[in-house]
Fold this sequence. Notes:
44% of the residues lie in helices and 20% in strands. The chain is an alpha+beta fold and 291 residues long. The structure holds adenosine-5'-diphosphate.
Amino acid sequence: KLDVKRLRYLSSEEFRVLTAVEMGSRNHEVVPTSLISSIAQLRHGGAHKILAELARERLVGKVQATKYDGYRLTYAGYDYLALRTFAKRGSVYSVGNQIGVGKESDVYIVSDEEGTQRVLKLQRLGRTSFRTVRKNRDYLRNRQGGQWLYLSRLAAMKEYAFMKVLHEHGFPVPKPIDANRHCVVMELIDGHPLYQVHDVEDPGLLYSKLMDLVVRLAQHGLVHGDFNEFNILLTSDDEPILIDFPQMVSTAHENVEMYFNRDVECLRDFFRRRFNYESALFPVFSRDGER
Ligand code: ADP
């Protein structure tokens, strides 16, 4: 599905037009064909033929709107633009297997020019609801389409920013490598998601590592907000790595106590269910620091 090789087969004119559709999307839900032509400044006038070709490749979608016809960028088109940027910067050279299909993302193994493996995470916000919306009228569908690309970009930028700060402060997260549009490139962690782990040598030790992490985050002014077995990878030496933090909130948030306690409760619950482990010790949020 993600075919980097095809990148090389797109002509520079095709890329100009694809970029023009993206630029036009900033203030048009459906980008008028005439606007695409003028942004792309093709020598022979119209971009119609190239747009038809890009639409056949599903990098853009043709839209018959009420007032005018035009095009919108698809996730596939957005993927190509991001990948091309990563390729230029040398952060991604080739794309390998898909290793994860999150609710709102696709995760691939990629490698750079030296063959070092990394992880590429592409945000896919609205993917599930997009299907149901599809049945609705055209203009509604495409209106939402544009918003989802924008929201996916925001999600990726936020994730990269948090990952960077957390990594710099020594928290166990993948090392962030690059970000562009709706995508983040990060270190590949050699481990398994906690929800797949049924055996650990010392559940008590892992429990306290995770609770320490919750507390240490709060001491840095952050509450994860969705601290569970799906967002944690466990390395072969049982070290937990946080891979996903879309709900992170500041401890200045008015409901911070609720979020903090919910994270703690979620972990306690998991340890009870999975490892039959329960401890009388667990952190409780207090205004002037954690206990
Ligand atoms: P989502 O937010 O859509 O749930 P995740 O970030 O949780 O996506 O990633 C989905 C899956 O991809 C994870 O369960 C994990 O198996 C894999 N994964 C994500 N990031 C990494 C990484 N840095 N290293 C190794 N595997 C990863």
